[in-house]
Amino acid sequence: MGWESACLPQKGTFNLGVYVCYQIEPLLDQRSTVWARASNGSGGHQLQEHGVAVPKPRETVVGIDLGTTNSAVAVIEAGQPVVVRTQTGARTLPSIVAYLPDGVTLVGNPAKRQAVKNPGNTFYSVKRFIGQDYKAAAEEAQRVAFTVASDKDGAAVVKCDHAEAGSLYPEEVSAHVVAQLLEAAERYTDSAVKKAVISVPAYFDDDQRKATLMAGKLAGLETVKLIREPVAAALAYGLNTAEDQTVLVFDLGGGTFDVSILEVGSGVIEVLATGGDAHLGGDDWDDALIKWLAHNHLTPAGVDWRAPPVLTQLKAIAEAAKIQLSESERVAFNMPFGSEGLRAVLTRQELEKMTAPLFRRARLPLDQACWQAGVDLGTVLEDFAARKGKSRKQGGSRGRGALGGGVQIRPKRRDPIQQVLLVGGATRMPAVRAFVKNMTGLEPKEAVVNPDEAVALGAAVQAGILEGSISDMMVLDVWQATLMRALATQKLIEQRQEEGAEVTSEMVSAGWASDSEETDAHDSNGDKMQEVESLDELQKLLEVPAVLGAPKTSRVRLN
């Protein structure tokens, strides 16, 4: 599928799933002013208020990992994906953006270095808020040093003293990260970059996907294609697609968790099932450390650890300690708080004990994905089938796993998992590797790529497939929200139709028909769709008055 066919809805069809590659028109909602900037055709990778980059003669398509903690960009060179270094020479860019009083915007390490002095206007982990309602993000908002609020329509925004409107949508913040990556790619390739494949967690719903698309548009991209992070990781690992195998991708990043079951063979990578938690990642291990330090050392010493400057420093201290404990058995803290400073010692075993609940949260999405894919993972199928209706999904309504609401399809039994791929910086923790091994009985595949770079590299491979420079591989994704169209009691679409598949159904309506139907429907894998709250409402949306009893042919394309 090339860029044209991927981007443009075909006449006489309607698409299920957000258009992952298209020109977005300004929406008549609270974001219309912000989003209109993305459709003004200005281009360039400096955001509008910072000027427009000069167009360059040659065009390059890039792959972008827009991560919670770090981001990266990669391109295809001589048929192979290559990570592009940032302006500072680093292979990844911290997903941190700071706004200064003089109108200057800092991105990456410069923003990180000044965070303690400017905590209220330095934004990190905004991926956890992108496309979210404030109510869904309220608990998460308590864990950051900046202020998360609600706009007039209930969407999550971040307060910013130096923004003209006084607040910013998360996609506006993320756009600066994308713009910085695009500048690095243009400098590296000496060509214009107007098209990109951007990664998203497998469980992102319609609102989150559209907001991610908008971040790319605001950064100056004309065309954006989304790819699920686990699929990108599989592409990056360079799996032998000629060999039939079932693969588990365990992706634990800074702020999100994805698990996917893939079937590989005959040059095709097919996604069988996905699960995830929108609010589980390396940040949660940092938070556990912060709370341990606060409870045992800061609070007894009279230090207000929730004060933004203190919390910002604690975040950096906890992250460094977590990384050190991945390589050492103990870590010593020397904290610049109180009159004489505070000292503490923590062992790896103590960290693993205090974070045990996080592994229980990771277990459910893994069970869900295995159950839906029909993969025999020890007693997973039987165990999950017995308790799937009793367990509460983690991450709220936005963090749904593979088993959403609606009809459950009995899984087809498949071969056991033969390979395990680890993706995301948090998988470097020994406890994470041990957890995966205990669950699967397999040693994770030895990393042939840096876990921090795998998603960006895979996104670049997908860009190469779309642009035609890579032709011996195909990715078939699977939509996992159950969506039925009941017209004269006939089910038109069931869960697990492959992306790109077309379903044709002819029926005689009791009172609905037309010569042709062109409808735009969006799937969310969450608790709502673009314009409907239930399947009944979707059915009403699709019904068009026509001649009573006239035969009706509907074609549906999953995109």
TrEMBL record:
<dbReference type="Pfam" id="PF00012">
    <property type="entry name" value="HSP70"/>
</dbReference>
<dbReference type="InterPro" id="IPR018181">
    <property type="entry name" value="Heat_shock_70_CS"/>
</dbReference>
<comment type="similarity">
    <text>Belongs to the heat shock protein 70 family.</text>
</comment>
<feature type="compositionally biased region" description="Basic and acidic residues">
    <location>
        <begin position="519"/>
        <end position="531"/>
    </location>
</feature>
<protein>
    <recommendedName>
        <fullName>Molecular chaperone DnaK</fullName>
    </recommendedName>
</protein>
<dbReference type="InterPro" id="IPR043129">
    <property type="entry name" value="ATPase_NBD"/>
</dbReference>
<dbReference type="GO" id="GO:0140662">
    <property type="term" value="F:ATP-dependent protein folding chaperone"/>
</dbReference>
<dbReference type="InterPro" id="IPR013126">
    <property type="entry name" value="Hsp_70_fam"/>
</dbReference>
<keyword id="KW-0547">Nucleotide-binding</keyword>
<dbReference type="GO" id="GO:0005524">
    <property type="term" value="F:ATP binding"/>
</dbReference>
<feature type="compositionally biased region" description="Gly residues">
    <location>
        <begin position="396"/>
        <end position="407"/>
    </location>
</feature>
<feature type="region of interest" description="Disordered">
    <location>
        <begin position="388"/>
        <end position="409"/>
    </location>
</feature>
<keyword id="KW-0067">ATP-binding</keyword>
<feature type="region of interest" description="Disordered">
    <location>
        <begin position="498"/>
        <end position="532"/>
    </location>
</feature>
